[in-house]
Specification:
The chain has helices spanning 111-114, 216-226, and strands at 7-9, 12-15, 19-21, 28-34, 36-39, 49-52, 54-60, 63-65, 79-82, 86-91, 94-100, 103-104, 118-122, 125-131, 135-137, 140-144, 147-149, 155-158, 162-166, 169-171, 175-180, 184-188, 196-197, 200-201. With 233 residues, the chain is mostly beta strands. The two termini are 30 Å apart. Belongs to the polysaccharide lyase 1 family.
Length: 233
């Protein structure tokens, strides 16, 4: 696919399918994924949904899952974003029943490429996940109006990443927001529901686009009604 083209993929339901875009000299630009359901993608096939070396990607209304009955390495990631991806948005989606949910930036030694990373997560449901909900290395992330339920881990900002975390709701989660290896977050309006918020702070907030926050008290109902592979006509 040549840069500048727009492709929309809709109403696709799959079992054990990996969708991946490897690094090429012509970076993939402007792609929309909508209404996908991907489940039980084995580790040998890679991530359920992997985005690499791509710009202006919108993942909307997808359902990604496996199970936690197998070892944590039986499956790979649900939705990983790596190799300097810029302007990636994940919205209205349901990530659930998995060990390693969503990794942004794949290696501590890939700083020169991954400083460009910018990923937004909005209006998603994260349920029964062990870790990476999500986990950021380098770059910048905007995480707002998500609903986190019954997860072991929380949002992890690490290795120089800077996150803007706004108006999210956490229930029955062990961790809410934390940092390792000098990651940072600017957090406001979140309902951590008793989960910990121990991230080192930053004042970064320059996401580069306009947006409207849903009130924290309305997030749970909105996300439960809209997240996942749903279409209305």
């Amino acid at each position: 696919m040549r840069p500048g083209r727009l492709l929309e993929l809709a109403l696709v339901f799959a079992l054990r399918l990996a969708v991946r875009y490897p690094s090429t000299p012509d970076r993939l630009q402007r792609l929309v994924w909508t209404c996908w359901e991907l489940c039980h993608v084995l580790a040998g096939a890679g991530d359920a949904l992997g985005i690499q070396a791509a710009n202006r990607i919108w993942v909307d209304s997808v359902d990604l899952s496996s199970d936690r009955d197998h070892d944590k390495d039986y499956y790979d990631g649900l939705l990983d974003v790596t190799h300097g991806c810029y302007a990636v948005s994940v919205t209205n989606s349901y990530l659930h029943d998995h060990w390693k949910a969503s990794l942004v930036g794949h290696s501590d030694s890939n700083e020169s490429e991954d400083l460009a990373i910018q990923v937004t997560y909005a209006f998603n449901k994260w349920y029964n996940l062990n870790s990476r909900t999500p986990s950021f290395r380098f770059g910048h992330g905007h995480i707002y109006n998500n609903y986190f339920l019954s997860n072991n881990d929380g949002i992890n900002t690490r290795v120089g990443a800077e996150l803007l975390v706004q108006n999210n709701v956490f229930e029955s989660c062990d961790k809410g927001l934390y940092s390792t290896d000098a990651g940072y977050a600017n957090a406001s309006g979140n309902d951590f529901g008793g989960a910990s918020d121990t991230a080192s702070t930053t004042t970064w907030s320059s996401v580069g686009y306009s947006y409207t926050l849903t009130a924290t008290a309305s997030v749970k109902a909105y996300v439960n009604a809209n997240a996942g592979a749903k279409l209305s006509f």
